[in-house]
Amino acid sequence: MTAFAEKFSQQAGINSLMDDLGKAMAGDQPVIMMGGGNPGHFPPVQQRLSEELQKLARDPDAVARLIGVYDAPQGEARFIRALKDLLNRTYGWGLTEENIALTNGSQAAFFMLFNLFAGEMPGGGRHQILLPMAPEYLGYADAGLGPDTFRSVRPRIDYLDDHTFKYRVDFDELALDEQVGALCVSRPTNPTGNVLTDEEIGRLHALARAWDIPLIVDGAYGSPFPELIYTEAQPFWDEQVILCLSLSKLGLPAARTGIVIAAPQIIRALSGANAILNLATGSFGPQLTENLVRSGEILSLSRDQVRPWYEAKMRKAVAVLHDAFDDACPWYVHQPEGAMFLWLWFPGLPISSHELYERLKARGVLVVSGHYFFPGLPDAGDWPHRHECLRVTYSQDDESVAEGLRVIADEVKRCFAGA
Length: 419
Ligand code: PLP
Prior knowledge:
binds pyridoxal-5'-phosphate; alpha/beta; 16 strands; 6-stranded mixed sheet; aminotransferase; Aspartate Aminotransferase, domain 2; Aspartate Aminotransferase, domain 1; about 425 residues; 13 helices
């Protein structure tokens, strides 16, 4: 087997996690699923997309395009045009069609981008992707074909009250050098629900400009859609930035539609990689949402319906958390500013977060152990924090989420009591 085959057969990171979650869901025991990143099934979005689907199905020309045409490797042209117009109208970014490419989910875009900007360089040496702040999205971890694709930096921790904290980029520790091929952040961040401030993004952008490398901003949960942001944050783009968006978290994960907005030479490289990997990107997601993008409804749907729905879920979950934990043991939640996760931290947890995950799984509650979310940060054993956290998804129904949180609180209290 080649090194390539070996890499993809390994049961590491995202692969073993998805496998474990899948098996637990397929067992006979009832489980509360707070582990994945699946969006909730939100009736207003489903209703609206069902109407669009019926319109497409009634129009023979649309059906022919929907199933009978390979698009160009850059993606479905009408959707790209409509999105370019919408973004220019809304933010004044001055995009042309050469600035946008579509991929089969944004996960595929990250695979291509990381290997465009990290790995062996033609003139010798290797480039890496610098993740300015751990924790970061576990889906990046195995996406580099070469070794040591990522390097990452510990955050600063600000305590906001007795049970709430916020990570901040530690610019004093963020050392760039010739080996850094790109910076990458998720905003909002999976797993923490953090939203990097405009100031942090501004400083990262200035660093990217100074080193003439791209700043990749993963907006899978962010602006302009699905807009799962519960704090003040401005969307930002210029040609130094590679902005990655997705239709998944709006409610279409099965349509596998990722969107990349970048300088034309990056879009050309990405389209070339896409042609080799996929020939063309699937056009189901783009065609289904084309009218919503053309009219701008995708923005109002996100802002006025999807965002408040998740924000209400988040507030309910946080209230349950305070009620269930009380002051019985040390616990913190990262300030939930976006996405669909609570990031819980138990300082001094007597067992590892992975053992806690196993104990919760035995009680029918599936979460994700926090230790997965530190790609590129060497585990020198000197930072217990990375084994003291859990990621909990609150996208499913409120009752199950509340029940799951109560079980988590009970189990954590038992751990601290030595049980
Ligand atoms: N980026 C982040 C931060 C995510 O959480 C996910 C999925 O969970 C993705 C990217 C990839 O999503 P998709 O491939 O469905 O667009």
